[in-house]
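Assess this one:
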Amino acid sequence: MAIRLILAIHLLLVSTWFGSVAIAAPTEGGCPSGSMNATQYSVGSGTASGQAFRPDGLTAAHKKLPFGTRVKLTNPRTGASTVVTINDRGPFTRGRDIDLSRGAAHAIGLTSVGTICTEIL
């Protein structure tokens, strides 16, 4: 019990220190299909697939998933979910698995960086 309290205090201090980092706690039992560390991006004019980049669209960038792959995203903190289409490559930041367009991040309530549940459709 004391260890959990110490860890909770440490997490609170770390989140306060970094300010804009959103910490997403896993849902009861975790993510059934898997999870990814996500962030949002909203700059650029084109994508690696050749499509125009639409910041408010429901799209995402992933390093290995084929273009056109649909992925169901769920925010474990809120339960909000949406389906995105992979149309770009990235993220190129260590520790990140998927970059969401601003529209996709907004749809699930992701404001900065966090862990999301994912299911490849």
Summary: The longest strand covers residues 81-88.
